[in-house]
TrEMBL record:
Keywords: Magnesium, Metal-binding, Nickel
Keyword match Magnesium: yes
Amino acids binding Ni(2+): 371
Lineage: Bacteria, Pseudomonadati, Pseudomonadota, Gammaproteobacteria, Chromatiales
Domain of life per record: Bacteria
GO molecular function: nickel cation binding
Required cofactor(s): Ni(2+)
Signal sequence bounds: none
Protein known as: Ni,Fe-hydrogenase I large subunit
Binding-site residues for Mg(2+), renumbered to this chain: 327
Source organism (scientific name): Alkalilimnicola ehrlichii (strain ATCC BAA-1101 / DSM 17681 / MLHE-1)
Pfam families: NiFeSe_Hases
SUPFAM superfamilies on file: HydB/Nqo4-like (SSF56762)
Gene3D superfamilies: Cytochrome-c3 Hydrogenase, chain B
Cross-referenced InterPro entries: Ni-dep_hyd_lsu, NiFe-Hase_large, NiFe/NiFeSe_hydrgnase_LSU
Length: 379
């Protein structure tokens, strides 16, 4: 999302528990308001300008949405395995696990973080090289990431337990703190994983209501017929993708679907992403770029998997110009007013000094990794 957006999480306590959780969001203007009337061919480039944090993912989703609307674009890597998207994916996991988490819990950062950032920039510069040059750049990045995590593989629960108990990396130390210090049940909540088919259905609904507090819910819920206040809500992101991973099962059994498994899921992805990036760079092609799309009229959806989860772009074209446009980011699911974050905090332990509760809530927010700024208030 662009600047100006913010999430405000308000926790209200009573008798040592968090009895009310209010999540408010301030969003920038709808993308449709900014793009309406633009020539379709200019949209991907403008997405890079509007969304600085994940500009390549936004541009890739825009291209896919335009293709769905009838704009013909060929070549290039598959949507999910686009090298630029994977680089952003690695960067976001590295930022969260290698910088934000250790700084928040340990008041320090890994010694190898600078090397990893240099290696990441090296891969970006090597995209135009031959396969050998690309592989060498990715190998350097992979080694730097393994150094920061403190291991090259976490294949099962035994590996995870040994890593958490014995590894001296800052990432392992931070997750060890979460394991040992976060109260049992704090942040624990389970929602079904968001699937692309379900996200396409949301795209179809975007022609109607734009109220983000309503659209993900089963319409029957408003009439009290569905039997649950969370009908239609989903989780997306690393935990949703990795929840069946054997390496997560031991932690899940002991701690439930809370802060630790969500952070561990991002660690598991960070270890395998360089391999996926290597394959995507080997398959890279030249994607034709054209700003002339003719008089196309139609609607289309584009879906891209990103570090934070599934991203949806929806477009309606009229004679080659944008008549309407909408973006549904992963944050809109994970930080829905009745979503997984709020469910994991309501009726959880909240006694003691407000600062301690705020710190735990900030950790729950970081485990879900919003794409906008956030603020926690404890009352």
């Amino acid at each position: 999302m662009s600047s100006g957006a913010e999430l405000v999480l308000q926790l209200h306590r009573r008798r040592g528990r968090i009895n009310e959780v209010v999540l408010q969001g301030r969003r920038p203007p709808w993308v449709g308001d900014l793009l309406r009337g633009s020539a379709a061919g200019y949209v991907p480039g403008r997405m890079r300008l509007l969304f600085g944090v994940c500009g390549e993912a936004q541009a890739t989703a825009a291209r896919a949405a335009l293709a769905g609307a009838g704009v013909q674009r060929g070549g290039g890597a598959g949507v999910q395995e686009h090298p630029g998207v994977l680089l952003e994916w690695i960067r976001e996991h590295l930022w969260r696990l290698g910088l934000c988490l250790p700084r928040q819990l340990l008041k320090g950062t890994p010694a190898g973080l600078s090397e990893a950032n240099r290696a990441l920039r090296g891969v970006m510069c090597a995209v135009g090289d031959d396969i050998r040059g690309r592989d060498a750049a990715v190998n350097r990045l992979e080694s730097a990431l393994f150094e920061i995590v403190g291991t090259s593989v976490l294949a099962d629960s035994a590996d995870v337990d040994s890593w958490l108990d014995c590894c001296d990396s800052e990432v392992a130390a931070a997750l060890r703190w979460v394991r040992d210090e976060v109260p049992q049940g704090f942040g624990v909540a389970s929602l079904p994983s968001l699937e692309p088919a379900g996200l396409r259905a949301v795209g179809d609904c975007l022609q109607g209501s734009r109220d983000l507090a309503v659209w993900p819910l089963d319409p029957r819920d408003e009439a009290g017929e569905s039997g649950t206040a969370q009908a239609g809500l989903r989780e997306t992101g690393p935990f949703a993708r990795q929840r069946a991973n054997p390496a997560l099962q031991g932690v899940l059994a002991r701690h439930g679907p809370g802060i630790l498994p969500r952070l561990l899921a991002a660690v598991l992805e960070l270890l395998v992403l360089p391999g996926r990036l290597r394959n995507a760079l080997r398959a890279i092609g030249v994607e034709p770029v054209s700003e002339e799309v003719g008089q196309v009229t139609g609607t289309g959806c584009g879906i891209v998997d990103t570090a934070r989860g599934l991203l949806l772009h929806w477009v309606r074209l009229h004679r080659g110009q944008v008549a309407d446009y909408a973006v549904v980011a992963p944050t809109e699911w994970n930080f829905h007013p009745r979503g997984v974050l709020v469910s994991g905090l309501r009726e959880r332990p909240g006694g003691g000094p407000a600062e301690g509760v705020r710190r735990l809530a900030e950790l729950a927010v970081l485990a879900l990794n919003p794409c906008v700024g956030s603020r926690v208030e404890v009352h």
